[in-house]
Amino acid sequence: MGGLTRVFMKRPDSGAIIGVIVIYGVFAIIDQVGWLNSFTQKNIFHFAAILGLMAIGQSIVMMAREIDISVGSVYGLSGISFIMFEPHVGVPTAVIMALGLAAVAGLLNAFFVLYLRLPAMIVTLGALFSIRGLIYVVSGGSVSSLDKEGRDHWLTQAFGGNWFGVENAVLWCLLVTLILSVVLNQTRFGNHLLAVGGDPASARSQGIRVNVVKTIAFVMCSVLAGFSAILTLADQPQTHVTLGQEQELEAIAAAVIGGIMLTGGRGTIVGALLGALIITAVRYELVALGAPSSWFITFVGVVLIASVIFNTYISRKIITTAH
């Protein structure tokens, strides 16, 4: 049993797994009627899936030892672009164009960080403000909702409907989690990503194209943020120019709570999703219990710091054991 415990604790996402079990257990005791009903869990899973996609993208960048603070604005840009493009080009083309804009944002971030050698935090912080400003300029400060033809389109329904009572956003999130978990653990790119994050100089000496790997990571992060926005609007067609504002902070927090190391080279896709589930579950239940909004902010701050301490401790234990 001791050996199994040690193996489990070495998992990057072990803290997130424990966190989910504890939170669900505590809330089940505190709010037996409201917490355990299907309506509550359906809503939690839905919003956790949206945040989870952003957190997964953020985790990929962080595994490569970078960070992207612009994802909230990219989320807003993609979602609002989808709404604005759809009446003119139709739903499928609007989706492609919106995700294309997200990919361009990721490419620009990668260019400034990797080829102009500017700090990722500064570059993506600048992108956060620049893209948000662009949204206001292009939209004129107001955005209409998705029209009826767009809402009724089969692709919109595939993104925003439900299948046998399960929200499609949850199914898409699980599919992305499965695919990217396989990519991270079973493919050359996954090995290269973790190698680049662990020791870029060593990875470069082994012939790994560090800048290419990091560029792909930035693009994946932005595209996943854009995709999560499209899933949101497919389910809730009404929007506002503030769409995605401050979500970058929750995405980063979810990734860290999920076991992603800020120093790169370690983490899991599932962990990021579990981190998003923890944040969403606590926010939902605190609102249901009538707690002040400051309680949620405090919780995220405390858990974020605790997660960093826990992840750093486990990482050092692994290194010590290896030596």
List the helices and strands and how they pair.
Blueprint (H helix, E strand, L loop, with lengths): L1 H8 L4 H17 L1 H4 L2 H26 L7 H19 L1 H25 L4 H20 L8 H5 L1 H7 L1 E2 L2 E2 H19 L1 H11 L1 H6 L4 H26 L11 H11 L11 H20 L4 H30 L1
Antiparallel strand pairs: 1-2
Helix pairs in contact: 2-15, 4-10, 4-13, 4-14, 4-15, 5-6, 5-7, 5-13, 6-7, 6-13, 9-13, 10-11, 11-13, 14-15, 14-16, 15-16
How does this structure look, described?
This protein is mainly α and 323 residues long. The chain has one domain (2-322): ABC transporter involved in vitamin B12 uptake, BtuC (Orthogonal Bundle), CATH 1.10.3470. The chain is 79% helix and 1% strand. It has helices spanning 2-9, 14-30, 32-35, 38-63, 71-89, 91-115, 120-139, 148-152, 154-160, 168-186, 188-198, 200-205, 210-235, 247-257, 269-288, 293-322, and strands spanning 162-163, 166-167. Strands 1-2 form a two-stranded antiparallel sheet. A hairpin with a 2-residue loop joins β1 (162-163) and β2 (166-167). α4 runs antiparallel to α13 (210-235), α5 packs across α13 and α10 (168-186) crosses α11.
> For the CA atoms, what is the radius of gyration?
20 Å
The overall number of domains is 1
Uncertain segments of ≥5 residues (pLDDT<50)?
none
Q: Give the overall shape.
A: globular
Helical segment count: 16
Total number of strands: 2
Share of helical residues:
over 70%
What's the level 1 CATH class? Mainly Alpha
Average residue-wise pLDDT: 89
Described by strand count, sense and barrel closure, the largest sheet is: 2 strands, antiparallel
Sequence of strands across the biggest β-sheet: 1-2
Oligomer: single chain
Distance between the termini: 24 Å
> Structural class, please?
mainly alpha
Percentage of residues in strands? under 5%
- What's the CATH topology label? ABC transporter involved in vitamin B12 uptake, BtuC
